[in-house]
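Progress note, project year one: complex with magnesium ion.
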Amino acid sequence: MSDIIQLLPDHVANQIAAGEVVQRPASVVKELMENAIDASATEIKLIIKDAGKTLVQVIDNGKGMSVTDARLSFERHATSKIRAAEDLFQLNTKGFRGEALASIAAIAHVELKTKQDEDDLGTTIIIEGSEVKSQEVVVTPTGTSVAVKHLFFNIPARRNFLKSDTVELRHISDEFHRVALAHPNIAFSFYHNGSDLFNVPQENYRQRVVHIFGTKTNEKLVPVEEETEVLKISGFVGKPNFSKKTKSEQFFFVNQRFIKSPYLNHAIKSAFEGLLKDGYHPSYFLNLTVDPKSIDINIHPTKTEIKFDDEHTLYAILRSAVKHSLGQFNIAPVLDFEHQSSLNTPYDYKNKNASIPAIEVDRSFNPFSEDVDRKEKTTRQNTGFKSSPSASWESMYVGLESKGNNSESDFSQVTFESESKDESIFNDSAIETRKTTFQLQHKYIVSTLKSGMLIIDQNRAHQRILYENFLKHITVKEATSQQLLFPLQLHFTPNETKIIADLKSDLEHTGFAFSELNDKEIMITGVPVGVPESEVSIILEQLISDVENDVPDTNFSAADLLAKSMAKSLAIKNGQSLNSTEQEHMVNSLFACKEPNVSPTNRPTFITMAVDDIEKKFM
Ligand code: ADP
Ligand code: MG
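Model obtained:
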């Protein structure tokens, strides 16, 4: 039998490859723009005619090509971007296959003009269906221009398969937006049939997003910034009330490459949990930077899919970072009492009343002190809690009930702003009788509601109160410190000392002061007001162990972790008896919190039992 296998001629192989690389004019736009970026251009111009069917041209001011390279660039697997297989695992460029120009030249008429800065003259090459028609010396500016005409001229089936100009132009715009968003430090312009569609200068990321999606976008952006060892995140999410019915404003860029990742998208969605109406999608414009070694983009020719080494960690970090930002920018305070939202994040204290004095840690809520009453008054004024003292938690419930909600499940339908001063809710006259509280097993505070019964876990409730207070101090960066008469010297292992040193500035914002902080010793000269000296080493030990045991999902932010840890250390323990004033103060402080229904570690702080439920038990 004779041999029957033959190598395909190059132009046929190129046409086959083109089937993968070039689906439509937008694919050409993507490849050419990416080449311009890889050539370190700072200005890129995109010129389109007839939705790319007649012309796609990209002009850049990048580094250009030599005469030889210009010719070679159209060969298949000709690339300047990788040399060996190892390079695939540390890609810093968009391209690496060396297939795009060869593929495009196989199915279109291409005219290349290019010049390197050091050369006086450039090169121009005309190539049609893989056939070089001419190569000449030309006068042209530094950089490269690639014009692609008559796409699919030799494959009528593909040409006929193209959609209407409107649809094809939309695909082109999408590609353009993705590339332009990923590179705010490059100026872009975009012309279609002679008219100017986009023209954006070099700018910062916020300006770029706003330029592309319109000025109205500006007010809806919430910054997201996080940096960990494995991942750096920067960019924006849209405020929940600006969410859209389409997914048109969802952008992930990994190392400046647009990617689609249903898994990471889910991380964002879950961070928005409870904040979005059904059927609405959050907007996001997020840049993730990871070690190129930890990703594999080689799995799909159009390269919008990506494989991460450690997706789970990325998921957790991303979710936390977004939650954190949503919390910080005060998107969280729309509280739904039933919903166990888990926005265990810092809050926005930027909008606080500037005159609020540096507050003590609300440790003035000291169940052991005799004069709680007096202190309570001052604390009430000082803590800057948003709800007014008369807006007691009881009236919230009574108010709800007067609207006809008398079972616990009905709370789920009622959303209220924590800052609301709505008369119908905070109307004292709505309180029928003075409610009393009592303590059960030195562990729970029980109170009656008009609609039933409220049972509060005293330890968790106090953790919530302290946590929000600490967070406020850390965020606002103005806490008062209580100077120690004699500096307190503590000894930790070098590892432990490192943890404290890393948290030093956050600790100082809660009121700690250090005179010495090195491998050998820690000298503390000040502690947060209200923190007993005897508890300092316990607090720091707890903090160290919390940091050491920290899992990315529950936490990543030092400030948040510190606040949680200190709240845990200092909260009233179960078994502690509280007098009625203390109980009442606890209840009121809890419901003055931004997120009263869960502890800092996301456990319920209270439960309610409706009269209906009680009645059922008697049946
Ligand atoms: P890849 O981008 O995968 O390397 P391409 O076929 O897109 O493959 O490009 C082939 C080569 O041509 C590139 O590696 C690069 O050296 C050169 N090249 C392409 N476009 C440009 C440009 N705009 N400026 C400078 N060099 C370019
Ligand atoms: Mg390329």
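Confidence is low (pLDDT under 50) at residues 332-434, 551-556.
The CA atoms of residues 550 and 556 lie 8 Å apart.
No further modelling is planned for this target in the current period.
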